[in-house]
Amino acid sequence: MKKVSTFTSLLLVAVMVFAMMAFAGCDSGEGGTSPEAFAPAEGYMTHAEYEAAAVDSEVKLDTYVQATQSWWDGKITVYAQSPDGAYFIYNMTCSEEDAAKLTPGTRILVTGYKTEWSGEVEVAEGATFEIVSGDTWTATPTDVTSLLGTDDLIKHQNEKVAFKGLTIEDISYKNDEPGDDIYVTVGYNGASYEFCVEVYLTGTDSDVYTTVGTLNVGDTVDIEGFLYWYEGVNTHITSIKTVG
Amino acid sequence: MNAALKRAAALALAAVMFILPLGGCHGSRGRDQFVMPEEFDASRNYEITFWAKNDTNVTQVNIYNKAISDFEALYPNIKVNMRLYTDYGRIYNDVITNIATDTTPNVCITYPDHIATYMTGRNSVVMLDELFRDARYGLGGSELRFDGPAESEIVPKFLDECAIDGHYYALPYMRSTEACYINKTYVEALGYTIPETLTWDFVWEVSEAATAKNPDGTFVLNGGNVMIPFIYKSTDNMMIQMLRQHGAGYSDAEGNIGIFNDVTDEFLRGIAAHTGSGAFSTFKISGYPANFLNAGQCVFAVDSTAGATWMGADAPLIDISEDKLIDFETVVKPIPQYDPENPCMISQGPSVCVFNKSDPQEVLASWLFAQYLLTNDVQIAYSETEGYVPVTTKAQSDPDYRAYLTAAGEDNDLHYPIKIQAAELLIDNMDNTFVTPVFNGSASLRDAAGSLIEEVTKSVRRKQTVDDEYLEKLYGDTTTLYHLDEAGRAGGVAPGEDMGPLPAASTALIVSIAAVWLGILLYLAFSTLSKKRQYHR
User: Is residue A13 part of a domain?
Assistant: First the structure.
């Protein structure tokens, strides 16, 4: 009897685990859901609808936090991405308590206004949000190296992206010393591009911040980051590795 | 004395000790007032922190570094650690946080508005009156190891800006104002001539003309898809200066808010109309004015004179790719005026305050460094990085500085003409500058002033209607958001200032507590005596 009871319990546990996994089927972890399969919550936009929306119009996004800048003064800037596209949400209204919940992968419903600032299409300051619990998703970086210098690069604006085999041309600290942003000039196919280690995103104690400080002009590197725009492509670097 | 009486006496003493501090605590929160030491103890070593602000300009950072090393060479026992900021708001926020934890810097670049808030921590900011006038270590003092300015050599108007309630709490460090950087080529292409004194009417009229489009949707003026004829960087300044030029209300020194008035209404309706036509936008909404100006996408760009090195076709600092730059003639003018006969413009720029510490010698070391920032070497070098003006007549009249001004246009780097013209604009208009009253909450009011313009501009772009109802709601929301109904003169209390009688509620509380304690004591004494009697029964 006792043996049967244990077996039954184990069976029930197994059934429950499978059931929970099935219910959490939308929790595809890292980069699993295809753009076509992604369906935003009712009343919220697909990325295509967001792109089609006019600047200064209201937008409603169903998306996943990929990273945040440091919370400050009731606001937080969010790098967000869904399987069908990415968003930069500038100074979203957020309490410090809620900011701690915006970990990578967290699903959020955002209401705000679309705007453009120095070439960066983003959700304007003051957007509001709510967290959708029980569902997470993180993006796998898309390799956009071949798109550098082309008009197609901007189609990936705000996405988590990767670049392979770029050459370091210059590295300079914002205030000429560590502590603030680091400007990283990289070369590819004879053209130069201004990338940035955004200190509010990475902090100064991160691997990427310290690694960039050790690089030399001429080093070949692979880079990951968010495809931010400031008067042109201005990737916010989250990872950098020397490859040659 | 038996045990019961001892206990009663101890309780009475405890009650007195409890009540006494209650009566004395009113206004005594924070540090003791700084007391000037007899002399500077040079036998000790000091390590002080300096929170500095730069305009994302490495040359300014280098000047700070040189000032520190030169100062440390003069005072080998004082080590200065610098922390750099590029944003006044961040300094303000960090200082507020550090007042709470008693970890403020020693010396800090700041705005007087901010100091008024810092002063809510009693004696957190050192009142400088005594330090200014100390014969040995004060301004121009006999024991200084550098040639600093005397008090009379600081431009009086700039020095006055550092006084709160009749006492000095800061030294001016640099001064600037705002300027309108104009694409003269475009203005003339539109058939206009820039007047001697720029007026709001002129700017709006030309800006409206610049919105004309071709049938294909491109702008006639530049043939491109982007044209924002008039962009304002600091909308708080825009509102403040407009109200001042009209003689309309903003606030008084007591913190009474007067910003919501008919002039504001009219101005915001004008902003709404010009936003609706595409003639106007702001930095927060569209981007840096300099980028639009230099790309030929703007006619009038208003920004600080301390941003002059970014302005113009030949600007030494640029933030857009070379291929986007266009060639045009740049003219620098004071901001638009309502009354050209009586121009007025804001005085702004960093000041330096000294934070109080438990060790007066550390404060004195900090004061020596703060003063050093006013020496000619620092003043002239820093002012030359941007359209700043030195705050001392000693530096302004220095032959090196005069030669610098005269050399305008000799190159597009140190002698970039737009930058030097911007500085001269302020020098020529020092008597036409003003500052707003400083009180605890004045920093919030400033933010609120800018937000009115930002909100109206955003709303129009979002197809909302700006009418009476809108403005009424906007004023209400702004009052709440910026706590304008709480603003007032609470910026700490000057040492020695009579704070008046305690509030009635506080008095009642203390009396009540005293009465309760008295009751307890009487009860204890009575019960002690009763027990004694019982023992004898």
Answer: no
